[in-house]
Amino acid sequence: MSPTRTPARHRLTGVAAATLVFAAVTPATLASAAPSATVSPGTVAPGSRVSLTLDGCDTSTGRASSRAFGDVSLSSGSRASLSGSATVYGDAAAGSYPVTFECGGSGGRRVTVTLQVSPGAARGGLGGSVDSMSPGQIALGATLAAGALGTGLWLLRRRWSHAA
Q1: CA atoms lying within 13 Å on the CB side of residue 150
Q2: Mean pLDDT computed over 93-109
Q3: Do residues 55 and 74 make contact, with C-beta atoms less than 8 angstroms apart?
Q4: Beta 43-44 vs 110-117: how paired, if at all?
């Protein structure tokens, strides 16, 4: 006499089988998940420097490449995150540039993100600290600096004349 299957027993067997399949497939799915990458800042002027970060690789080295800056090696002390930096070519035309990241270098898992190059040149010199100041503020600062220099010279001259 064979045991008969009840609907509840049939559902339980189906759930158990689905759980076993899910448990067997999940580690493989997580291991083959695509890495993630970022370029910071995402929009830059030609000649600017960008930070490159690649997460989700099983390697301690990687590579990023783009027509905006060429090939860059990525590395880190840990396997969790790889990083590097690049300088966008000074003559790069405005537009979108794909940046391809590879785990472990050529032939590794890849991910591509976009870098936006804006028109204009990178700021140099004072790092933009004077850009937000009005001409009146600049004149006041120059006057105060000149006054301090003049007072210092006057005090030194006075000191020298008393010493002689």
Answers
A1: 6
A2: 88
A3: no
A4: parallel
